[in-house]
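Let us practice reading a record.
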Amino acid sequence: MTADQLLTALFNGGIAISIGATVMSLGMTFTVQQLVAPLRRWVLVVGMVALNAVVIPAAAWGLAVLSPMGDKYVAGLVLATLGAGSAASLKGAQLARRADLPLAVSIVVVLQLVNILAVPVWAGQVVSGASISAWDIVKSLLALVLLPLVVGLGVRARYADHAKTWQPELVKAANLALVIALTTGIAANWKTIKSMFGSWVIVTALVIVVLAAVLGLLLGGRNAEIRTTTGLVSVFRFGSLGLIIIGSQLHGDPTYLGPAITFALIDFVLPLVLAVEIGRRGVATTPAPRTPEDGRPVRRPKDHATRSGPRRDG
């Protein structure tokens, strides 16, 4: 086995472990009832399906074709945008603090189910002359998303105490696997990625990411929690699915893998920074009251309404 083959194997394994561990940890976090309840907002759910499975992939394809980017990079970039409902969006929702996490989980699960039908159709259109096996994609989604979720839910239902201990460890394993996957993927394809700097791939990827975020925010309406949720779920694309397609169906061709990894990196880092910034702003708008240890009086709105004089302690 050559060094490149080893790095590619580590990359594929890291992606698979990261997705599976993340989804299993989510199954250990919520009950079935908690995940099903948000689906009653069926208008919002249908809107998210249409946006993420149709509008965003179509917009990404159109932007890639119209950009000055070389035609040989279009398919790889678009493949990375096809998958919806990335598990990374749930981490972003946690960091944002103002998101509706059960709603985010429910929508992500729905979008993963929609991927089974939508992604093979899109992939067959995007990659001309290549054989895209719909069944292979279905198997990947079943193995990496649905099965870990069912296992996680089962563990929570039967071994609730153990689930509280295992869930944080699974998150750590998922994060470590993701770091390994991205590192080895970049190392194995560094020459191709380096060539992206002069190809408009990075600029096009940035435009797609911003557009996905804006469309998701607009769909969320006026409610801040829902808006944050729909924006983050939409902007975090399930790029790992595109990478799996490239690795298993297109033999890891660097022409496809280079722009796909470039997009995956941008689509992970930029939305994550956005989520952290939303979380910080949320904390800044609701500062905690000063404690008595400050040496300053604690201000409470009720005190002003009920007392006309200064507060006396002791």
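A brief commentary: Residues 171 and 186 are 23 Å apart (CA to CA).
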